[in-house]
Amino acid sequence: MKKYIVILAAVLLSGFMVSCKGEAGPAGPAGADGITPESGWYSVVLQQGVDGYTGCYDARIRSFAPDTNYGSDDASQIGYYEPNNDKKRFVIEFFFSDGPEVPDDAVIESVTLSLKTSGAGSGSGAYRLYECSQAWSEGTTTWNNAGVSNWTVAGGNVDINTPVSNSAVLNSSFIGWSTWKVDKNLIEEKMSAGTTFGFVFVADNETTITSDVEIHTSEAVDVQNRPKLTIYYSKP
Questions:
Q1: Are 195 and 24 in contact (CB under 8 A)?
Q2: pLDDT value for 191
Q3: Where residue 44 falls among pLDDT bands split at 50, 70, 90?
Q4: How much is the pLDDT for 124?
Q5: What is the model's pLDDT at position 58?
Q6: Do the Cβ atoms of 156 and 165 come closer than 8 Å?
Q7: Residue 128 in 3-state DSSP?
Q8: Where residue 216 falls among pLDDT bands split at 50, 70, 90?
Q9: What is the Cα–Cα distance from 82 to 203, expressed in whole angstroms?
Q10: DSSP alpha helices (H): ranges in 135-208?
């Protein structure tokens, strides 16, 4: 009888411990994003359709079809196609209030944005991440128009001199994840303001690359392949 009492007590205790856990658990070991979380860090992943998150919007914009919207496509491209002088960029936005939340008193330690390739032509290129500083609409944005008004600078209102991430190489023949480390101060600023206009992916070379990389979007059939923003934070 004592044996069964001990087992029952252990089961009840384990259930109590699970029920006392916070909404976000401690961050695990280093993952595909290359970040090695320190002791005491937590993480929140924003990915369309995962854990109730619905705040990601994205679209391809291209100079060869400057008035065409591609916001509903399940795949997109970034790069430059030389025969058509076609620049292809990718705008993406994550709202912070539409899913898993980061505590108000959290200290942001690191932020990454990850895209998964879905296939493309041969070759590879370097692609950099920039801040989008103008409101836009997924369902109507084009190369010329943000969907709310014309871009201040066509192609996403990008200031090429002020990237907000390191450069990354996406090999178009490899199907997998590539990750950019985002300026955490920018994320803190956007979270405190409660809004964001998101980011624009631009190829470092938009004059001679003859192929582009294809990526999954927030409309990808498999939700696990959709873009994701990972926020690592600690508590005071």
A1: no
A2: 76
A3: very high
A4: 63
A5: 98
A6: no
A7: strand
A8: very high
A9: 13
A10: 184-193
* Window from 23-32, 42-51, 56-65 with minimum mean pLDDT: 23-32
User: What does the CA dihedral 61, 224, 185, 203 come to, rounded to 10 degrees?
Assistant: -30
Q: Which pairs with CB-CB distance under 8 Å and at least 24 residues apart come from 182-191?
A: 182/111, 182/112, 182/113, 182/129, 182/229, 183/111, 184/108, 184/109, 184/110, 184/111, 186/131, 187/108, 187/111, 187/231, 188/108, 190/96, 191/96, 191/102, 191/108
- State how far the Cα of 147 lies from the Cα of 140, in Å rounded to an integer: 5
Place of tokens 């942001």: 108
Size of the chain in residues:
236
φ and ψ of 58, to 5 deg: -155, 165
Q: Is the dihedral of CA 220, 164, 175, 210 positive or negative?
A: positive
DSSP symbols for 5-40: HHHHHHHHHHHHHHHTS-SSPBP-S--TT---PPTT
In terms of Cα–Cα distance, which of 228, 5, 7, 22 is closest to 116? Answer: 228
